[in-house]
Amino acid sequence: MRHTHAVITVHLVSHWTAPGHDARVAADDAARAAVEAACALPASTPIAIGRRCHSCGSRDHGAPFAAFEGESAVPHLSISRAPGVVIAAACVRAPVGVDVEAAGTPLDPRLADVALAAAERPRTTAPGDLLRAWVRKEALLKATGAGLAVDPATVELHGTRVARGPAGPWELQDVDLSPGLVVSVAVRAEGPISVVSHTTP
């Protein structure tokens, strides 16, 4: 008997930034907008955005979280930055991770020895393959809450399928937001992902 899993909705907010703009402020603004969208909250709802490091307990860095008053479930949250843009993802049903890099970002080829599982290296040869693999892995590891405290080489991906890695189940999806960006979203749940994109002014 085939089981049908419910669609997992992820709200993705892109906040385009100007040079010199405070990256932390932009990240928090994008995160609030993502939480508002995921929970259908009124725009006037006060939403606090914080950070918590799972390794050292610091509140100055680490995985983001949201807090607000009301009956809505607080969604899982993830934030990523690239030059000129901040992206926040919020998901009510499952832990979520998002990562973004500018397309064409030059990476040290030696990164492949650090970031890729042995089985991935023969498949990661075309221009842009390493960057795409890195973005997918960062999204997945952010969804664990541990980020790069987990060795990315212990994760083996076949495209967007997680063949080996942190305990799942996992759904991983590439998102086409802009020709100049490489974006991936991961959720720790079983079921197709529906990404709803929003842009802040």
Short description:
This protein is an alpha+beta fold and 201 residues long. It has one domain (8-200): Ribosomal Protein L22, Chain A (Alpha-Beta Complex).
Write the layout of secondary structure elements.
Blueprint: E1 8-16, H1 23-39, E2 48-52, E3 63-67, E4 76-82, E5 85-91, E6 96-102, H2 111-115, H3 129-144, E7 156-158, E8 161-164, E9 171-175, E10 181-187, E11 193-200
Parallel strand pairs: 1-11
Antiparallel strand pairs: 1-5, 2-3, 4-5, 6-10, 7-8, 9-10
Query: Largest sheet, order of strands side by side?
Result: 4-5-1-11
Number of strands: 11
Strand content: 25-35%
> What number of domains?
1
**What structural category do the secondary elements indicate?**
alpha+beta
The CATH homologous superfamily is named: 4'-phosphopantetheinyl transferase domain
The second-level CATH architecture is Alpha-Beta Complex
Output the radius of gyration: 17 Å
Largest β sheet strand count, sense and barrel closure: 4 strands, mixed
Q: What is the overall shape?
A: globular
Please write the string of helix (H) and strand (E) elements: EHEEEEEHHEEEEE
Q: Low-confidence runs (pLDDT<50, min 5 residues)?
A: none
